[in-house]
Amino acid sequence: MHIVRKVFQPEYIYLYSSVVGFAVYSLVHVHGHVLRKDDDDWVKKFMEYEVEGPRPRGRPKRTWIEFVREDCKTRKLNKVDAMDRCKWRKVLKAVL
């Protein structure tokens, strides 16, 4: 039996218009997958988990979900749009 492994190949980045576009595409793409998962899935629970307790002093570091929410807000995407894969893909292709 032949095992096919997916390995990141840097030359694929040049297929995209910019590295920033590739990064945004990757973040929002993964976010769509997680939103479509079942509510009892551990990945979705972990993404929606809020850490209790006070935050450290100073300006807090931005989290992954903050970046994704900001990108979705600028593209006017919400959780309902993530359930429609065709619309989600169309918006993601526009990013590139």
Q: How would you describe this structure to a colleague?
A:
There is one protein chain. It contains 5 helices and no strands. With 96 residues, it is an all-alpha fold. It has one domain. Helix 1 packs across helix 3 and helix 1 packs antiparallel against helix 5. The N and C termini lie far apart (36 Å). The mean pLDDT is 78.
Annotation keywords:
96 residues; mainly alpha; globular
How many β-strand stretches?
Answer: 0
Instruction: Output the structural class.
Output: mainly alpha
Helix content: 40-55%
Q: Supply Rg.
A: 16 Å
Question: Mean of the pLDDT scores?
Answer: 78
Number of domains: 1
Uncertain runs with pLDDT below 50, 5 residues or more? Answer: none
How is the main sheet built?
A: none
> What characteristic shape results from the CA principal axes?
globular
In DSSP terms, counting alpha (H) and pi (I) runs of 4 or more, how many helices?
Answer: 5
Could you tell me the strand content as a percent range?
under 5%
Q: What is the element string, with H for helices and E for strands?
A: HHHHH
Our measurement of the CA-to-CA distance between the termini, rounded to an integer number of angstroms, reads: 36 Å
Concise synopsis of the structure shown:
The chain has helices spanning 19-36, 42-48, 64-74, 79-83, 85-95. With 96 residues, the protein is mostly helical. The longest helix has 18 residues, at 19-36.
